[in-house]
């Protein structure tokens, strides 16, 4: 089993890097985990809608280039389906049982994901109606993946 997280932008904050490293280490006893960073585009505050689409398309091309053809793709998007931690764990387990041995999660940049990336995704997932910085979303996703594997193995986890 393998999980790839493809994310736009690099982590700069030391505390976020430490959290990512900690959860990646914890997950390594359950699954092979890979984090792939693609570069982000400059996105000034006063962009037109057309300029925003160009940024998302360029970032999307980089994301799509890193996706394995056999990967089951879950895009993180605010308009995606919200799930409880238990449902998330059950859904992951069902994917693995059905032979989806490679799952890729995609975290977009500050403007979100391009239409092309959303079309490639097998499903979209939302962690909240709130907006989170994409750098922090990496930590939240890793924590929920770790929690999901603990749930799948009937190991104790914080409720």
UniProtKB/TrEMBL annotation:
The coding gene here is: rlmH
- The residues forming the signal peptide are none
The record, for HAMAP family, names: 23SrRNA_methyltr_H
* Keywords carried by this UniProt record: Cytoplasm, Methyltransferase, rRNA processing, S-adenosyl-L-methionine, Transferase
Molecular-function GO term, any one: rRNA (pseudouridine-N3-)-methyltransferase activity
Q: Which amino acids does the record list as binding S-adenosyl-L-methionine?
A: 76, 108, 127-132
Could you say which enzyme class this protein belongs to? transferase
What the protein does? Answer: Specifically methylates the pseudouridine at position 1915 (m3Psi1915) in 23S rRNA.
Protein localization = Cytoplasm
Oligomer and partners: Homodimer.
Gene Ontology terms: cellular component: cytoplasm
What Enzyme Commission number(s) does the record list for this chain?
2.1.1.177
Q: Which reaction does it catalyse?
A: pseudouridine(1915) in 23S rRNA + S-adenosyl-L-methionine = N(3)-methylpseudouridine(1915) in 23S rRNA + S-adenosyl-L-homocysteine + H(+)
Return the InterPro entries for the record: Alpha/beta_knot_MTases, RlmH-like, tRNA_m1G_MTases_N
The source's domain of life comes to Bacteria
Indicate what this protein is called per its UniProt record. Answer: Ribosomal RNA large subunit methyltransferase H
Family label: Belongs to the RNA methyltransferase RlmH family.
Taxonomic source organism: Fervidibacillus halotolerans
Q: Which PANTHER family does its entry note?
A: METHYLTRANSFERASE, RIBOSOMAL RNA LARGE SUBUNIT METHYLTRANSFERASE H
Its main subcellular localisation, reduced to a broad class, is: cytoplasm
């Amino acid at each position: 089993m393998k999980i790839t997280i493809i994310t736009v932008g690099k982590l700069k904050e030391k505390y976020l890097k430490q959290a990512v490293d900690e959860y990646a280490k914890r997950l390594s006893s359950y699954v092979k985990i890979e984090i792939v960073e693609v570069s982000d585009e400059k996105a000034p505050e006063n962009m037109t809608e057309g300029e925003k689409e160009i940024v998302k398309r360029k970032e999307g091309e980089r994301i799509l280039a890193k996706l394995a053809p056999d990967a089951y793709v879950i895009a993180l998007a605010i308009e995606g389906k919200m799930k409880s931690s238990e449902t998330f764990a059950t859904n992951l387990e069902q994917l693995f049982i059905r032979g989806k041995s490679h799952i890729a999660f995609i975290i977009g940049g500050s403007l979100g994901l391009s239409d092309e990336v959303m079309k490639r995704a097998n499903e979209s997932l939302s962690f909240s109606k709130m907006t989170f910085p994409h750098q922090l979303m990496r930590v939240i996703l890793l924590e929920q993946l770790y929690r999901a594997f603990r749930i799948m193995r009937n190991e104790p986890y914080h409720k």
